[in-house]
Design brief:
This protein is of the alpha/beta class. The protein has helices spanning about 20-30, 45-55, 60-70, 75, 95-110, 120-130, 160-170, 190-195, 195-205, 230-250, 270-294, and strands at about 10-15, 40, 140-150, 155, 180, 185-190, 210-215, 255. Strands 1, 2, 3, 4, 5, 6, 7 and 8 form an 8-stranded mixed sheet that branches.
């Protein structure tokens, strides 16, 4: 399948955890209109889904694999931390006790170690989703962002061990241990480029457009945080929001699925998030076709 338009475009897929499921719907809508990117630049969950699509060239294959993994035992063992007051909907004394114990374990681990979750499970899931393949197997060009640890420089990978590179882009500091790539360590690309539009513009040729998909978090205007963790989460969302606005200036077109206030670790509504992404892309596709044909 090839673009029927005069110009080409690079697709920049941002980070956002479970909100990133909307990326799948965006690509689904693009495929429905015979629109395929020349290359993909991915950050965090955008690196994973972008990498899967670049390998298979079929969004339906990607969606099916994601659905299978989300219901798998391996995903349940990933132990994504929950640090919100909505820890449990069970308000019995046993439910509250269980939630408190789990929270206590997390706090103890946070106080005595540098990460909460072993990265081995993350690597296994990525390797499974990518069918054990690598950069040499790509059908679409792929560039993945990560941040060097501890010095903080942004790195853009387009070669190496694909599973490790994607894991590095997804390795949220404090949640996963930094990923070792050739004796250098890397963490979540979203720290520096949650929306990698600038990085896509750097890679794009002068005649190529940059289409960026923003699935980042937004602060809830109707909810004031009333705990230290809540305040820290609010502060991070505000900082990330303004950083994404800066990066968005480098995109020729922004697709914004408006993922609401869903937590990054919430993968419980995949079909809803995929459809949200598809509908937001459908709204922008006439503009994209016009820009590509100009």
């Amino acid at each position: 399948m090839t673009n029927r338009n005069n110009k080409e475009f690079i697709l920049a897929l941002g980070g956002g955890g479970g909100r990133g499921l909307a990326h799948l719907g965006v690509i689904q809508a693009l495929e429905e209109h015979d629109l395929k990117p020349t290359a993909i630049v991915g950050t965090s969950i955008g690196a994973l889904f972008g990498g899967m699509y670049a390998l298979t060239g079929s969004i339906e294959i990607v969606i099916e694999r994601v659905r299978v993994v989300l219901t798998s035992e391996a995903f349940s063992h990933l132990e994504l931390p929950h640090l919100t007051e909505a820890e449990t909907t069970d308000h019995t004394w046993l439910g509250k006790l269980t939630a408190a114990a789990r929270e206590s374990v997390l706090y103890t681990r946070a106080a005595t170690g540098s990460f909460l979750t072993d990265s081995a499970a993350l690597l296994d899931i990525i390797n499974n989703l990518c069918d054990g393949k690598g950069f040499a197997d790509l059908k679409i060009g792929l560039h993945i962002t990560s941040v060097r640890f501890p010095s903080g420089e942004t790195e853009i990978f387009s070669r190496g061990d694909l599973t490790k590179v994607i894991a590095a882009s997804m390795a949220i500091p404090g949640v996963f241990e930094p990923i070792n790539i050739n004796e250098q360590f890397f963490v979540d690309g979203g720290l520096a480029c949650e929306l990698p539009a600038k990085e896509a513009k750097m890679i794009a040729k002068p005649e190529q457009l940059v289409v960026a998909v923003d699935v980042g978090a937004r602060p809830n205007p109707n909810k004031k945080p009333d705990t230290v963790i809540g305040m820290l989460d609010w502060a991070i969302r505000i900082k990330a929001y303004y950083l994404r606005q800066y990066k968005a200036q480098y995109a020729d077109l922004i697709i914004d699925p408006m993922p609401g206030f869903r937590q990054w670790n919430d993968f419980s509504h995949p079909d809803q998030e995929i459809e949200r992404g598809r509908q937001s892309a459908m709204e922008q596709i006439p503009n994209l076709i016009e820009m590509l044909s100009a």
